[in-house]
Amino acid sequence: MDSDVAALAQILWKYLNLNGPLEKADCIVGLGSYDLRVADRCADLYKGGWGPFIIFSGYLGNWTRTMWDRSEAEVFAERAIEKGVPAEKIRLESKSTNIGENIKFTQELLQAGGIGPKAVTVVTKPATERRVLATSQHLWPEMRIFITSPKITFEQQHQNGIQDKLIHEMVGDVQRMKLYPELGFQSRQDIPDLVWKAYERLILLGFDGHLIN
Question: Does the pTM of the predicted model rise above 0.85?
């Protein structure tokens, strides 16, 4: 990767990755994606006693439609079982196609099961943490939500994931930080000038594949 692009991408990644504290919760929710390390993190949290069961949420998205012939939730569940999580400790939400639906449909699944958690840990990709925070604050304000992700660096997420498509994805997510509160999709997030300038520069360099028209 070009060193200038890498430096700009690091600015966005550090903004989007919250790296917040973790506490024991009533449920672990793993958000489906192309990155199986999220499922691994969920399995590790379950086995470490951080939550009594896992909900995997996700149908298929922009990247996974061509990767798998079944939902992200199913693929993640299979991975977690391989990692030692009992199948009976896993529930599936296999309809959602975006983060808003992940949250809403998980709420519905819990309500249908008569489960009323007071605290939930949501596991996602490192560069998606802030969008999960903003969406959860808007759609699930009464819930104590802890957000975590695989403990990897930007370079590891980039090289062992979708590579430069990750930069397109991060640029699109920063745009959503600006637009989505006005559309009623998530809470407002402060965007530092340094982050916005990096975002604008990456668009000029051609990383616009995940932008909203």
Answer: yes
